[in-house]
Specification:
The structure holds 2 protein chains of 2 kinds.
Chain A: E1 3-13, H1 23-31, E2 39-40, E3 47-52, E4 57-62, E5 76-79, E6 82-85, H2 121-125, E7 131-141, H3 151-163, H4 165-178
Antiparallel strand pairs in A: 1-7, 3-4, 5-6
Helix pairs in contact in A: 3-4
Chain B: E1 8-13, E2 19-23, H1 27-32, H2 35-46, E3 60-63, E4 78-83, E5 90-91, E6 94-95, H3 99-106, E7 110-114, E8 121-126, E9 129-134, H4 143-154, E10 160-163, H5 166-169, E11 177-179, E12 182-184, H6 189-195, E13 198-204, E14 209-210, H7 214-233, H8 241-244, H9 258-263, H10 279-292, E15 293-297, E16 307-310, E17 318-321, H11 324-332, H12 337-350, H13 356-369, H14 385-398, H15 402-406, H16 409-417, E18 428-429, E19 432-433, E20 439-441, H17 444-452, H18 473-481, H19 490-497, H20 512-532, H21 552-560, H22 566-586, E21 601-603, H23 606-620, H24 630-635, H25 639-647
Parallel strand pairs in B: 1-7, 8-13, 20-21
Antiparallel strand pairs in B: 1-2, 3-4, 3-7, 4-5, 4-6, 8-9, 10-13, 11-12, 15-16, 16-17, 18-19
Helix pairs in contact in B: 2-20, 2-22, 7-21, 11-12, 11-13, 12-14, 13-14, 17-20, 17-23, 20-22, 20-23
The structure holds iron/sulfur cluster (SF4) (3 copies).
Organism (chain A): Geobacter pickeringii
Protein name (chain A): (4Fe-4S)-binding protein
GO molecular function (chain B): 4 iron, 4 sulfur cluster binding; electron transfer activity; metal ion binding; oxidoreductase activity, acting on the aldehyde or oxo group of donors, iron-sulfur protein as acceptor
Chain lengths: ~180, ~650
Amino acid sequence: MAKIKKKVRTITVNADKCNGCRTCEIMCSAFHAVPPYSSNNPARSRIQVITNRLEDIWMPVFAGEYTESECMGRNKYIIDGKEYNECDSCRAACPSRDLFKEPDSGLPLKCDMCDGEEQPVCVKWCLVDALVYEEREVEVDEKDVKETMTEMEVGLESLVSKHGFQKVMDTVARLSKKG
Amino acid sequence: MRYAEAGYYLEVDLATGNIERVATDPKLMELHLGGLGTSVKVHWDRVPPETKAFDPENLLVFSTGLLNGTPVFSANRTVVSFISPQSGTLAYPMMGGFFAAELKYSGYDKIIFKNKSPDWVYLYVSNNKVELRDASHLQGRGAVETQELIRKELNDPKAQVAAIGLAGENRVFTASIEQSRSSASRLGGGAIMGDKKIKAVAVRGTGDVFLAHPEAFMREMQGVTDYIKYRWENPIKDVMTILSGIGSPQEMLHTDEKWHTENFAWGNARTRRRDFWTEEIDESWSKSQHGAVKRLISCYNCPTHCGALISHKDTPRYMAKCFGKLTYAMAAYVDDLDFSWKILQRATEYGVDSFSTPQILAFAVELYEAGILTDKDFKGCPSDKEGRFFWLLDRVARREGIGDILADGVYFAARKIGNGAEAFDHNTIKKHEQLPIKLGTLDPLYFLMYSTNEKISITQMEGQWPQSAFPTMEQRQEFVRDWPQIPDEKFKQIVLDWELRGEKSIPYFPTPDMCSEIVDWMEMMHNIDDAVGMCCGMSSFCLKPPYHIHNYPKIISAATGMDLDEAGLKQIANRSRNLHRAYNNRLGIRRVDEKPPEDHWKKRFPELEEELLSTYYTYKGWNNDGIPTREKLEELDLGYVADDLEKRGILKNGQN
Ligand code: SF4
Ligand code: SF4
Ligand code: SF4
């Protein structure tokens, strides 16, 4: 099978270095405002710092794919004497929690690695290096290369799963008539 | 659209339960910025001077700063203002942590509480949903415990909760308001909350804060960031470790406490232990601190992590910051730092401030040892130093027995106890406990700051000016070489001329004129910080900080869209400062009140002190009694204040 080279952009989280300042949330939301930096609202951030202060939990989590249904798992884990809720580390926006959803529309958010920026802004502004950016070239099977979904696609997909394809189409048609 | 600010106050009438969202006049920002500035204006307009601290008319205002909720690093202060039960003046303790930003995202610049609630309540603010909720189940709970319980109740780990403990409920004058890793602690804010029967305020917001000129704003942010990194890599030379960097004093990080333990006084501001810091102490204190500090944590949007999660043996966990680590141990003459972590936990749950409270406890011990308080007053008290302090702390927080008298602070307790107790009240200014520092020769700069500032407590008034002269010319030159933060080049010459001994040393140098300008500059920076909600550790309480008079106007302009230059910003700071002054004048503050304790410095210079005060008053545009003149007030668009002061006979018509 044909192999092709692909650039992989990742962020490594070093949660032990995190001081819980939430600057990453602030800057992510500001960067994604339109126009960029014109407003700021951590609730719109694609990175959320999960916190339980007295338990010593400050854990930055990036928004991942949207899931249509809530999962069945609600386990608790004890790691290093700290109790984590399974939900805490989940990257998905799901029906049962508000995390990684636009506060106004409820549409899911997904980390886009700040596409187009030299370096993700959350990494850039985390001055204590709890977030570290990595860019690697990897060889992958051609068939595994999927286009990453655009923001609009993520939103539409979730609308479709919520309201059904027809209803979304009807709405679009109605809106386009209004011009 | 409103930029940086939300444009709404939340008005809560505790007597009727009525809650209103009130739009504010955009002009207020131009006149007073926000934060402390606009809060003082609210109090001036609405709380008449006859009001006493525990009257229902006393307003309790929780305020965000102008830049809270924007990406400006370290702008996270909540200013809490009210007439203090202790000083009788307009107090404004501040807390870092996470509260102010959350309130701004909820869409409010301030929460204004008036009147008193008949039953215990907590206020829950979440965007448009605002409600007073029953708090009867929280009564008696600790301040940290309450925050956790409310977060659980709301099922929202990101809700930010400011709460009082038992001390606040019992209206102890040193009661604090605790929130996350911070507290608004001075002058009895917790007591006012308790008096109004507000157990806590919980906020959670998911709205936007807008910026007027994003590109210009981000340019300034980049500059600030570059500077923070530069300072981290290049600590200031020839000053003590805690002053060499940025951020609030890093008491949770540094373990070397030679300077504090040997220069501050132990007990009730009594004894300096000049050779306290031995190798064994160094070792045992480092071990204790490293064992107790689980993680260093920041306030909202700040990289500097000055606070810590404390997990000491079987003591329940809590968060600590700054100086409380030393104050209880030093006040109790306990040489084991483990004691600090234990008592600080209980003090935090009770919600009492860690500057005044240990002084009050030490004062009680002193009175007992002097036979003024007796075995009857101390019935049931253990005899060891540690046990005694825990016992006294319990009595104060619960207002039980002798604790009921002590709970009003050293000044009032001394007068109530009588029998010579007044002589032991030797460390208060305007009825408020000061840092336990008793030094050699009068320091003219500190004299002015202690005496005249409305914050009353010195702990956050100083900062930008070096604490003493540098011994060598090389060190002075090095210090002034790279000092863009100063408002005027002439300050460099003062540092160069300033000697440790001889003609150009304290108390006569810097001269009263120079002192006036230096103090005015520091005060101005504090005023701006308190209006924009900046942590003074990143600005006015810091040598060579990231924020200063030259970049502030640009940052504020870019954030708000206001057309502001340095002169304009100075004018606003001056306006708010003078309004605050006039307010406290209206509440009775005069020149006679502006006095550091008698034994504050071993060598005092009464004539020089009078000259310092007079020179400073003149510089500020105040009359000989410390009251702003009509001319000064009019220059600051405060003609209405002059009218009011004249009407009340505080300013005499036509004369200064
Ligand atoms: S900016 Fe860095 S230190 Fe701050 S919360 Fe985010 S990951 Fe943690
Ligand atoms: S990489 Fe960019 S989009 Fe993703 S969380 Fe960080 S700032 Fe947000
Ligand atoms: S410098 Fe320290 S106290 Fe100030 S905001 Fe930052 S973490 Fe908080």
